Amino acid sequence: MNTTGIIISPVNMEDRVALGVKAGDTVRVHQKIQDKGKMRIQIFEGLVLAVKHGTEPGATFTVRKMVDGIGVEKIYPLYSPAIDKIEITRRSKVRSAKLYHIREKVAREAKRQMRRMTLTSIATESGIEVAQKKEALKTAEAAKKAALEAEETAKQKAVEDAENERLATEAAAKEAEEAVQTPEVEVVTEAVVVETPETPEKTETEEEKVA
Q1: Which residues contact 74 (CB under 8 A, 6 or more apart)?
Q2: Is 96 left (phi over 0), alpha (psi -120 to 50) or beta?
Q3: Antiparallel, parallel or unpaired: β 70-77 and 83-90
Q4: Could you give the CA distance from residue 97 to residue 41 in angstroms, rounded to a whole number?
Q5: Nearest 5°: CA angle at 72, between 68 and 77?
Q6: Model-level pTM?
Q7: How far apart are CA 93 and CA 25, in angstroms?
Q8: E strand segments, the chain
Q9: How far apart are CA 132 and CA 4, in angstroms?
Q10: pLDDT, greater one: 72 or 112
Q11: For position 177, what pLDDT does the model report?
Q12: What is the DSSP string of 17-40?
């Protein structure tokens, strides 16, 4: 089918055909990303595993890269208007048109590296965990303080009870000692009767005599 003169994409198709992307190339794809009403460019750089459909309108190429030990693959349409630019940074000579065996090779290498790995449990604390720990620490300190105060109060009460008991014992002993040393003295009160002599009354005769 002759597609000469038919525009199938707003991009410059001739430039992308002339670029000649093939398996084994290391390419840097500048992809347009619409984010919150703004346009930004995201760069994805990796190895071209395969190119399908040549230079046809539906031509695609697969790019693979490693991110933190994990293989990430993207399939891009060659004439996609979402691609702003394609750069070839390195070109390698390969014998195969499809490099899918690299997946298995990378997987074997990853397994080999995992044999030398050790399990660890290292993580940062979240704000919630820190707050919970602080609250638990405060509660424990308050409980410890209350227990110490209760223990101190009990000790003071025990000391006061012992002191009161000692004072009561000493007072009882002192009273008993005083009771032994001081005998009871009976006070006898005798009634004394004083007889007053009666004065004889003067007779009228004597009074008259005197007169």
Answers
A1: 29, 44, 46, 62, 63
A2: beta
A3: unpaired
A4: 29
A5: 150
A6: 0.49
A7: 8
A8: 26-35, 38-52, 60-67, 70-77, 83-90
A9: 71
A10: 72
A11: 80
A12: HHH---TT-EEEEEEEEEETTEEE
* DSSP output for 119-141: -----PPPHHHHHHHHHHHHHHH
Instruction: State how far the alpha carbon of 148 is from the alpha carbons of 143, 151, 170, in Å.
Output: 9, 5, 33
CA atoms of 88 and 117, how far apart (whole Å): 35
Q: Which domains does the chain have, with CATH numbers?
A: 13-115 (2.30.30.790)
Rounded Cα distance between 62 and 188, Å, is: 137
Token reading at 103: 């997946």
**Cα distance between residue 61 and residue 59, in whole Å:** 7
pLDDT for residue 173 is more than 60: yes
pLDDT of residue 1: 46
Q: Terminus-to-terminus CA distance in the chain, angstroms? A: 198
User: How many whole angstroms separate alpha carbon 60 and alpha carbon 78?
Assistant: 5
What is the rounded CA–CA span in Å between residue 59 and residue 79? 8
- Residue 102: name the closest of 144, 123, 73 by CA: 73
CB 146: neighbour CB atoms within 10 A?
A: 10
pLDDT tens track for 111-134: 776 676 665 555 655 667 788 888
Q: Tell me which amino acid residue 122 is.
A: I
